[in-house]
Every structure is written in structure tokens, then in C-alpha cells.
């Protein structure tokens, strides 16, 4: 599942926290900026590259999928800078909930389809991890991003039937502003938590017009349970690449709640079918060898007689 929210001031910087529960199996959705900023939604999203809006209904990933180690799931989203000035787009992943067994075993990749970067390893529950790439967008320019979540091939048996949810955060800020990461912007945001019942307009963080920012949240995907049946298992879609262990920043208790409008997702996978297959193959091999030995012994006796 996923979530999104947004604040803004004078459009110098805009932070968009996009919640994308992303992992091997995920489902994400977009919850746009509050009504107070509806007229100043400079960060817009699209699932087809044609129709843009400040929000996208439903999850980004199919959270019904189930995964085994090495499996992954991908989706595509277009992000547009709808302001009239150049801006810098960066992103991060916030782990809103996770079983401890999955810590640093889930990976997220976000980038241009033609040049996907190394996967970024996601941390424990409550951590925020910045993704490696950023993009400079002119006013009105859009970028097509490929998103992939996966479960590491090194996932042990104790990851079976575990789950995790994470949100994807996007930060769009003026190129004239001092650079900062999406996680830093999320931690310093004055936006109310997603769980709050009232959803007034998100106020811009304190500061001058040149340093003001808007916070918005996009929904992403979640990681479902490990597959119990072979027909629900999906093979990895990415080649083996070294993990980019981006720094994970622990968020305070008040910051662990995703932004308003964020829709969570989950992930799960299993390795039990692999173990069963290996055991069955071994038993069959031993039976064949035993039968061959008996037949050979009988033939030798017949020849001697």
C-alpha cells in the first residue's frame, strides 16, 4: 500500500513524501496534497505518462503477490515538476513497519529504466533510507521512473511468513535552495502524521521563502507473505547487482507514523518449497543407486553359475 501528503510556501522548495510500501510484493497508492495546497501542487504523478494529478488512487505495486528469496516486483510512475522554475527531485524509503527478521534483506531500486542504479538495502522499522539518484527537472518537465522491490537471495528460512510495510518519499525543491536529502526533509517537516484524524492543510516548515518546503506523500508498495504455492511465486526481474547500503536514519517515535494520505503495503515470502524439493531429489537418487546395485549383484551370480 502507499501514502502521500504535501505542504508549500512560495514555491521555493517542495517536499513530497511518497509512501510506497515497497518490497518484493507491494502495492502502492498516491494520496495527494491537502486541499489547502491544491492550487499549488507543483509535484504531480501519473501511471500512464499522460494523465497527471496530485494523487493516484490505489497502490503502486500489487500487494497480493508473494515472494521467495530472489523474487522482485516492478512498476513505473511518471513524476512532473509543474512549477515554472527548475527544481531537483530526490527520493527515499521510510520503513513504517517491519518484522525484525526482514531488516536489511529487502531492497528498493528507483531510476530511469535505461540506467537503473544498484539496489538500496532497506533498514529496520522506523528507519529512513535515501535512494542514490536525484534528477534535475525544468519547469513542466517530467521523468519516467522504474521502481523495483525485492527480497534478497540470501534471505534465510526464518524470513518465512514475515511482512513489512514502507513508504516512498519524494522531495522536489528549487535548485537555488541548499541541497538536502529526502530523509532530512521528512525528519524536519512540520506536517501532521498520517494517522491523525483531522487533515488540515499541511503548513510549510518554519523558515524564509527561499528555504520553505512542501511535504507530500505518495503511496508505494508493501511486501506480502512468502509464497505457499508455486503459482504465486514470481522470479527476480533484475540481474544480480551489489547492494547500495544507503544510510538508514532512525526516526523518532513521532516521526514513525507515515504522512497523511499514505497507504501502507506488506511483503512476505517463503523458502520451504525449495527445501522440500532438495530432500525429494536426494531420496530419489539414493533409491536409483540401491536398485542398480541389486540388479548388478544378481547378474554376477547368474554369470558365475
UniProtKB/TrEMBL annotation:
Residues 1-38 form the signal peptide. Keywords: Membrane, Signal, Transmembrane, Transmembrane helix. Residues 184-209 are annotated as: Disordered. The chain crosses the membrane at residues 278-298. The keyword tRNA-binding does not apply. InterPro entries: TAT_signal. The keyword Membrane applies. This is Cell wall protein. It comes from Arthrobacter gengyunqii.
